[in-house]
């Protein structure tokens, strides 16, 4: 290849990287296909550009983030606990009305879904499955409620567990209704969250549940987080305030 051609290719790549940086400053996170469309090149070209600039970008599960994005977008339970509190409360009241006294339900992690425990039926014999400590702590104080806590490696920032044993346990369970959380719910890119270790549990539960709901406050709509776990049509209903 002639040196002039190499220089032209270098300039074009630098221009693409600059445009990608600008787009990420606006959006925060970008799917690979959207980046390719924005730049007018193939997804393979975008991947090569990303590989040449690890100091600028992270590429995680099909999504592009600014370098350091794993740290800046990491979900922390304590930081999220009081945001949109009223909307979360209203969404959880709606969700709890769908629970019948003898159901076996899954309640996901986060700062929204744990609020459901305040409104669940107290008659009958309810069973609650979770992998989140902040859900388990509330459930264990309730009367007439069985608790199944999926264990494994503990993640302090989200108060959740992960591991193969938890997945094997889910495969042996019957789940009548699953109430899942999401950091973002996008009409095109589906349900996403901040923590990749949550994805296998969420997907295993979706595969086992008779009915599946995503419970979010409306600030999460049309947002995208790094870790994809479901398309919107995998949920029987989207519950928000």
TrEMBL record:
<dbReference type="InterPro" id="IPR014036">
    <property type="entry name" value="DeoR-like_C"/>
</dbReference>
<dbReference type="InterPro" id="IPR018356">
    <property type="entry name" value="Tscrpt_reg_HTH_DeoR_CS"/>
</dbReference>
<keyword id="KW-0805">Transcription regulation</keyword>
<feature type="domain" description="HTH deoR-type">
    <location>
        <begin position="13"/>
        <end position="72"/>
    </location>
</feature>
<dbReference type="InterPro" id="IPR001034">
    <property type="entry name" value="DeoR_HTH"/>
</dbReference>
<keyword id="KW-0804">Transcription</keyword>
<dbReference type="Pfam" id="PF00455">
    <property type="entry name" value="DeoRC"/>
</dbReference>
<protein>
    <recommendedName>
        <fullName>HTH deoR-type domain-containing protein</fullName>
    </recommendedName>
</protein>
<keyword id="KW-0238">DNA-binding</keyword>
<dbReference type="InterPro" id="IPR037171">
    <property type="entry name" value="NagB/RpiA_transferase-like"/>
</dbReference>
<dbReference type="Pfam" id="PF08220">
    <property type="entry name" value="HTH_DeoR"/>
</dbReference>
<dbReference type="InterPro" id="IPR050313">
    <property type="entry name" value="Carb_Metab_HTH_regulators"/>
</dbReference>
<dbReference type="GO" id="GO:0003677">
    <property type="term" value="F:DNA binding"/>
</dbReference>
<dbReference type="GO" id="GO:0003700">
    <property type="term" value="F:DNA-binding transcription factor activity"/>
</dbReference>
